[in-house]
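User: I'm new to structure prediction. If I give you an amino acid sequence, what do you actually give back? Let's try with this one:
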Amino acid sequence: MDPQDHLGTHVDGHRCSVCDASLPADRVRLLAWREDLAFLELDCGDCLSTTLGFVMVSQGGAEDPPAPASPISGDDVLDMHQLLATWRGDLTGLLSGEDRGRVESSR
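Assistant: Good question. You get back a string of structure tokens that encode the predicted 3D arrangement of the chain. For your 107 residues, that looks like this:
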């Protein structure tokens, strides 16, 4: 079984984050699969950009869909920039909330 088979119809409807073009399923590549989270590479044939995407895929039955998240603000982007500027750990540590990778700023 090809790991791409797990995605099924979940790759339909993706759009390029740069030019908003619709991406056909053959332009979406599965990079990793962890439980119900798929990490994707989105390759746009229109603007020739390549971006990363994440898809939550529920294997269960009739669960209520999660409430939509609030839009990302400029302050959110600045906060993330400041965090990443001082982060020296790995992605697992960052996502788990560990402080071992954080370098304290002297400002």
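You can read the tokens as a compact description of the fold. Here is one thing that stands out. The chain has a mean pLDDT of 76.
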